[in-house]
Amino acid sequence: MVGATAMVALVGLGFTRIVTAQRPDRVVSLLADQRVAAAIEAARASEARTIDEQIRYCEIPAPPFKEGERGEAIRQAFQGAGLQNVRVDRVGNVLGDRIGLGARPRLVVAAHLDTVFPPGTDVRITRQGDVLRGPGIGDNCRGLSVLVAVARALQLAGVQTPGSITFVANVGEEGLGDLRGMKVLFGETLKGQIDRFVSIDGPGHFVTQVAIGSRRYRVTFAGPGGHSFGSFGQPNPAHALGRAVAKIADLVVPTDPVTTFNVGRMGGGTSVNAIPAEAWLEIDLRSESASSLTALEAKVNAAFDAAVVEENRRGAMPGGSNAHRVRVTKELVGNRPAGAIAASSPLVQTVQAVSQALFGTQAPLARGSTDANLPLSLNIPAVTIGGGGEGTDAHAPTETFVATDSWKGTANAVLVTIALAQR
To answer: Are 36 and 6 a contacting pair, CB within 8 Å?
Structure first.
């Protein structure tokens, strides 16, 4: 049973639905530890500071590939939270260690620094009571503030774990960042040293254990260009692009496993009365199945090739040379591996035991494309969890975070971290 003093303390914090049935012994014993209860209390007591930091981090621009200024703020926060060996690796990941009784198991707890918003975006946050609005306030300024708050709570409570914990604020999770932070973290910075991984990404209460893989292409159609009247009839890169998009729009994809596609951006040309010399698009392909993703990729690439053939056939001139033909170039600009960890796995069961202990119910299981994709592809146990509170309009300038009882998300992250740093 849970220690009486710890039980009283936790119930007093508002966890009125604590139960002891059907929980792994690990979490039961942790809840009996007075320092663990103190860490949860520290999370609750400092939530106002966590919210203030969430706003402060968000008002530091961190567009893709330009996360350095926000990373510096987190580096200083890591030092202030008592982490050791605080450093920045070659791509801009910020790391800090909390040394356990042993080097292993090593748990990495991470939150991404970057946003989807380009340079020049107004990143000021407005606040009305518990409602915060502004680009990135939930995804992922919430994750960053909770990451720092967890490190601080463990320090304040003097929690000692059997294994070591490395806190990471990483680059490259969004857009064309292509998980570059995770790829360097697992391939270089901490290669072979990571046993378990948790990312904190956005608001809410969930456990993402199915990793949606994605392939992203920038596809360029090129030709000689010309005058819209005088050169009418010659193959047109924009027309080839249009043919390709129409073919892709007609593709039928499976719903099990869930597989999707999206042409997200298009551009090219110089004038309304000029045949463009170049037209381009960016396309995002996703699936929870690696084989389905590969099959979709093949169909999409075939659509690009067929569109070029058709456009060149339509614009073929008697004795025409290849110089007057459209060509296509396909550049892979994003490759996120798919993967999954079973709901019955020890890591997921431990995370769910924490949720059961604190909230009386297990967290909803989810699928998504997150930093956890990379470790799952390497068969390293990994999940992504929410940082508490509620959010809407992710990836929009009107993104909203509601902070009512958001401290419970911080407390959940604290207990998940402690539980996964056990042997």
So the answer is: yes
CB neighbour class for 260 (10 Å; exposed up to 12, middle 13-18, buried from 19): middle
DSSP, collapsed to helix, strand or coil, labels residue 283 as: strand
Per DSSP, what are the bridge partners of residue 365? 207
Q: What are the tens digits of pLDDT across the range 59-96?
A: 999 999 999 999 999 999 999 999 999 999 999 999 99
Q: Spell out the domain ranges in the chain.
A: 4-211+338-420, 214-336
Q: CATH topology for 214-336?
A: Alpha-Beta Plaits (3.30.70)
The pTM score is 0.86
Measured over the CA atoms of residue 191, residue 184, residue 282 and residue 234, the dihedral's sign is negative
- Mean pLDDT (the chain) is 92
> Quick count: other Cβ atoms within 10 Å of Cβ 34?
12
Confidence of residue 19 (pLDDT cuts 50, 70, 90): very low
172 with 306: CB under 8 angstroms? no
Architecture of domain 4-211+338-420: 3-Layer(aba) Sandwich (3.40)
Closest C-alpha among 347, 365, 335 to residue 422: 347
**What's the rounded mean pLDDT across residues 404-419?**
97
Which phi-psi region, left, alpha or beta, contains residue 65 (left: φ > 0; alpha: ψ -120 to 50)? left
Same fold, 4-211+338-420 and 214-336: no
What's the whole-number mean pLDDT along residues 389-396? 95
SS3 334: strand
